[in-house]
Structure formats: structure tokens, C-alpha cells
Amino acid sequence: MPAKSRFTRLDAFTKTVEDARVRTTSGGIVTIASLLIVFWLVWGEWSDYRRVVVHPELVVDKGRGEQMEIHLNITFPRIPCELLTLDVMDVSGEQQTGVKHGIQKVQLAPASEGGRPLDARALDLHAEKSAEHLGPDYCGECYGPAPPESASKPGCCQTCEEVREAYAAVSWAFGKGEGVAQCEREHYSERLQAQRDQGCRIEGGFRVNKVIGNFHIAPGRSFSNGMMHVHDLANYLDPTQGDHTFTHTIHYLRFGPQLPDDLTNRVGGKTMGWTNHHLNPLDNTEQITSDAAFNYMYFLKVVSTSYYPLGWKSRGYSADQGGSSDLVSIGQHGFGQDGSLETHQYSVTSHKRSLKGGSDSQEGHKERLHAIGGIPGVFFSYDISPMKVINREERTKSLTGFLTGVCAVVGGTLTVAAAIDRGVYEGATRIKKLHQR
């Protein structure tokens, strides 16, 4: 049997001759309507195929030996910059006292004058170079303690700051530097007096180990007294230096890099599922007190969060592609070369109390009693969650799913259109027969 005859028997699409076909006006209308519907539905399938959503996953964080960045911007309208110190410590035993790198202090005019910025400088406010004009043989006295290791001239205290460091090393209170030649030469006491009514804004970022820890902003230089971390509060509590309090406004506090605006707009869109990402709960938080001996504590639960853009797998992401954290400048840590982003989210619980003790009756809790003592300031204690959130960009449909949908749209629409056309044709034919009787 010829090959043509064998395939003819398998033809599932039988044809009719042209003379046996009947074309009607209703059939033309149904055909046009069905084509419009097919185009509309195919466009919907295409839009659905091109749509990108964020699919969240919750996994165990297996990172080891990592670091994270903390970025902050906090205003203290009733404390001068000269009195504020930023310290960081964690459970691994690492301490960063008087953090300077990556942080700036902005001097603010008194609140009565609007609190406008006066001057911005690095946090290393006390490092004066006033000893440069002294003779090469000059060796300043440290007034009792041993010279600090960081002294510009070994065995000497050339500046007021170096004398203060020497006092802190042996846990001695420093005060205004009365009788210290270096401080009198640098007018340290006069600077304290000139700034007593000013405010201060601390802004910038610093890097910490990704372990349980805390950082705090408190008055005076910090030092260790036995197993205790204490601050020199003499100048802060001195009534002649002004009425200082820890009233503050947290403009922002975040762990990790800030999401770029274009990513935030896409992630926060109506079509995305990750609409609440990076809404840092402490942003624009304001606390007001008239008590100098007052303590604010914020307990934070930090959750590692990764964002992987579309096509991330195909680019072969490597967790250490950014190199060592120490080689990356502050503010750039967490950005991958392939568009990925490693950052953090956090939740917070806050607590405040007067260091004088007493009940919390002003807050409506008479049964709540506060302990006496402590350090005035703003303290942030953070804990690291063992879980990690991965937000991955994905398409809602694969190419195969898109083609399957197009075939279903075309086939289903034409089948329904054929049924409608057949029904209209049969109905019109029966009506004609009834009129002919």
C-alpha cells in the first residue's frame, strides 16, 4: 500500500469540500469576537509570564564568622557632642570603646534656637594637634597614670585627650581637666562650657560581629572597673554644665545596607508579595524626658535577610564573592556583584526607667518597680535569630507553562465559539422552517 494511503487513514482532521460549507453573518460575528477574545487572553498569558514575584523562604542561617553593619542617625537635643560616647561590645568578648571610624557627630544649636546644625566632624573630637607647635623635646606629664599605648610620643601625654585616656585606663574620673597643663592649653574646660546648651546628632555606620551584643550611647568616657563597664559621669551630672537629659529622636536605625530605591519600588508594588520589607520599626522614634538620670533600652531581634534577583542561579552566586568584610568600605557590605543583597530585618521591644528607682505610676503601672542605679543613656541590645529569610525573584510561569496556556486559550476559545456558532445556526434554521409551514 502506498505511504500516502497509510497516513490518510490516520487523519483525525477530516475536511469538507468547499461546496458543502455554509457561511453565515452570525458565523462571521462569532469569528471576529472569538479572535478578539483570543488576542486578549493571549496578552494576559504573556503579561502573566513576564510578571515577577518575590517568593519568601525560611531556612536555617548557616553562616559562620560573619559581620554585619549597623547604620544609625540619632539626635540628642539636650546633650553636647563633647559628652557623648558610643561603645560596642558582644558576647565574644570584643569591645569597641569610643567608636570613631565611620561615625560623625554634628553639633546642633540649642533647642531654643531651632537646633540647626553648627558643625560636623568625625567622632574623634578630642584628638587635638595643638602639641605640634611644641618643641621636639617636650614630654607632657600624665599626672599619675602610665602613658597610653596610643600616645603620639611614647612615654608621654602630649594632649588633653591622651591624659584622659591614661585616666580611663586606671578607672580614674577626669572631670574638667583642672590643673592639667595640656587641657588648659587646649581650653578643654572652656569648650565644655561653650557647648553646654548645645545638642548633638550622631550619624554613620560601624561593623560588628554577627553575634549577640549591644551598643550604647552614654555620657563621658567609658572604662572598665573590674568586671563592670562604667562611664565618667562627672561632667554630665555637673549642674553648672547645664540641664542635660537623654531626650532623643531616632531618625533611622538599620542593620545592613539600605535597599536601593528602584528595588524598594519594585518590591513594594501591588504585584509583589514582599511589601513590608525593611520597614525598620525604630525609624522616627522620639523619646522625651526631663530627668537626667534616665535610661532607655531597646531589645532587638535581628533576622538575616537575603534578596536574590531574577536569574540569580544562572549567574552562579558565591557567598564570599564580596571578599573579606574588612576590605569593603562601610556602606558597601552586603552588595553582591550579581545584584544579590545580604541585609537584616529586626523587631524591637523597648523599656525605659529612672535610675532613681521608684514605681512606674506615670505610665499607669503602679505595681511595676524600678531598680536603683545604672548608667544614663540609650542602650541597644541585639540578639541574632538562627533563621534566615530568603526573598527570591521568580517568574509566575515558565516558558512551557506560557505555551501551554496559549494553546489552551486558542483551543478553548475556538471550541466554545464553534459551539455558539453551531447553536445560532441551528436555531436560525429551525425558525426558518417554522415560518415556512
What does this entry look like structurally?
- This protein has 437 residues and is an alpha+beta fold.
- It is 24% helix and 31% strand.
- It has 8 helices and 17 strands.
- The strands form 4 sheets. Strands 1, 3, 4, 8, 13, 14 and 17 form a 7-stranded mixed β-sheet that branches.
- A hairpin with a 4-residue loop joins strand 15 and strand 16.
- Helix 2 packs antiparallel against helix 8.
- The two termini are 53 Å apart.
Note poorly predicted spans: 123-129, 271-276, 314-324
Largest sheet: number of strands, sense, barrel closure: 7 strands, mixed
Backbone CA Rg = 36 Å
What sequence of helices (H) and strands (E) makes up the elements? HHEEEEEEHHHEEEEHEHEEEEEEH
The total of beta strands comes to 17
Number of helices: 8
Mean of all residue-level pLDDT scores: 79
Helix content: 10-25%
User: What best-fitting shape do the alpha-carbon axes yield?
Assistant: elongated
Structural class: alpha+beta
